[in-house]
Amino acid sequence: MTATATRPAPPTPPARHARRRRISRQTREMWVLMLPALVPVLLFSVGPLLYGIALAFTDARNTRNHETSFVGLENLGELLTAEDFWSSFRIGMIWAVSVTGLQFLAALGLALLLNQDLRFRGVARVLAVVPWAMPPVVIGLMWKLVYHPDAGILNSLLGTHVNWLADFSLALPAIIVVGVWTGMPQTTVVLLAGLQGIPRELYEAVEVDGAGRWRRFWNITLPQLKPVIVAITSLDFVWNINQFGLVYVLTQGGPGGQTRLPMLFAYEEAFRYRFAGYASMLGLAMAVVVLAALGVYLWRQMREAK
Question: What predicted TM-score, i.e. pTM, was given to this entire model?
Fold first, then answer.
């Protein structure tokens, strides 16, 4: 006598309705719990973002008695033909790429050092993240004192009398140094966390084969850190290309526009010349460029990973 498998009976209509009511109640409870977090996001993030996008297609001005009208892509056409925009865009890309690359290299070296069994490793880790806890305005004021032509510590150490932030050829490299110093701690923390997540067994396996430090770093550390590197460099690039406060305190875009990043250019157009619609289009264009660059970068990294 053979046993036959029996299909379970479908749920009865009352049971089905009870399950739907339970799911519906859970959905309502989920939305009730999410509302306190969603409302501020909608009011202070999504709302201003949509308003700024809409403003980019108008001739809005920060003046009284000005009737705003829809102008379509007129602001974009004016932006693409403006030499000041392309100059700020070039400076912004030099700033963002330089700061992102240099702070990654410096942070990687510091993370490798802090990952070693040092005597005062805890104290060193705390000191390494001090710049991260300082507001950009405070950092800018502090470095203005460092670069001061008369009483600056840098000129005192070098025995020179250079106005670093007012020199046409030195202002941009000077603020790049500040940008690297400011953003290095967060990159260091992320890379250090990635280093501590690498299994020790991988290093022990290559040590058996007689691999040296460089070979262990190249064959084990870098491949294992690749996802972390892609994530943190992408975030750093977005943060650096949108930098405003630090550079504004240091140079306000000078001398002669040599450090005028795109966000400084947008600020001047919006609040100095009061062209709100034009400035909004500049911000929208920069967002599209950054997203496109990140998309290509991440696509190449994912393709190499496969």
Answer: 0.82
